[in-house]
Specification:
alpha/beta, about 15% strand, Lambda Exonuclease, Chain A, globular
Length: about 290
């Protein structure tokens, strides 16, 4: 696999585990697309191939706006504009969130029963805490939402990652999450950290570590969880990308995608196509949580 971003890395020696199809039904794969395919190949097909609209929750939009405000603060530092004032960052958060909610409502994709005002308020305190406690300690930020791509030799598709904050020695990712899953163990196993460190390595700019900056809605405390990957782990991730690509190509050629029904994602609440899916609503499952009636 070789990098084709800002600079081209050396191609790796061919190995059976790195054999990939020349083409895929998409132009690129990413961490999120690999996660989605692992959960449910049919959902992946509807999302990436058919481009079906996806239901969004207010908490997701608040997370996007929170990340945009933090990105703006780093952008100001990178471009020599100094520190972004807290009230300016808050104004940006509010306006970005309002625009995303309006767009979702117009498209009819905002989930029913959502509380946008509550989701927005949940993002404001973490933003204050982040800009006060975490951002000033970050060293040498270089880019916001930096795109890095890598390709296998002969492949017409790429693997892409968008790095929230790219620093000289570390890659940062901001999370606004009500989940209790975030721990050192989960960070050490998280594929996003590994894939982004892989992309930096392939670009000839190996990073020392990846940091998750995890905030809880409504709280100013930010948890910083640092993780790293060994060269052997990065090599394994390349094999994982190749394996997923082969599975996607086979499913696309045969039309037999398969379903992933053993998880929270297989429910009317989280899957827009659940009610008409033969493995979801067609099985007579409970519309809210996917359990048998």
């Amino acid at each position: 696999m070789s990098a084709v971003a800002e600079r081209v890395g050396a191609e790796l020696s061919p190995a059976p585990s790195l054999a990939v199809p020349t083409t895929l039904p998409v132009a690129s794969l990413s961490t999120s697309s690999i996660r989605r395919f692992a959960r449910c190949p049919e959902d992946w097909r509807r999302h990436y191939v058919e481009r079906e609209p996806e239901v969004v929750r207010a908490s997701m939009l608040a997370g996007h706006a929170y990340g945009a405000a933090i990105g703006a603060a780093y952008w100001a530092r990178i471009n020599g504009a100094g520190e972004l004032a807290a009230h300016d960052a808050d104004d940006l958060l509010v306006s970005e969130f309002a625009a995303e909610v309006a767009e979702a409502r117009e498209a009819g994709t905002l989930a029913a029963g959502e509380d946008p005002a509550g989701a927005l308020e949940g993002a404001r305190a973490p933003l204050r805490g982040y800009l006060r406690e975490v951002a000033p300690a970050v060293e040498e930020p270089r880019a916001i939402e930096r795109a890095l791509r890598a390709q296998f030799p002969g492949a017409q598709w790429s693997f892409v990652g968008y790095l929230d904050v790219d620093c000289a020695a570390v890659v940062l990712d901001e999370k606004l999450s009500g989940s209790n899953k975030w721990s050192q163990r989960s960070a050490d196993r998280d594929p996003q950290a590994g894939f982004y460190l892989l992309l930096r390595s392939l670009a000839g700019e190996a990073a020392e570590r990846f940091e998750f900056h995890v905030a809880r809605p409504g709280r100013e405390e930010i948890r910083v969880i640092s993780t790293a990957r060994t060269p052997a782990q990065l090599a394994h991730l390349q094999a994982q990308i190749a394996l997923v690509a082969r599975r996607i190509a086979r499913a696309h050629a045969s039309g037999d995608w398969g379903y992933g029904t053993e998880g929270w994602w297989c429910s009317a609440k989280w899957c827009a196509g659940w009610r008409r899916c033969p493995a979801g609503g067609g099985l007579g499952l409970d519309a809210e949580n996917g359990n048998d009636r």
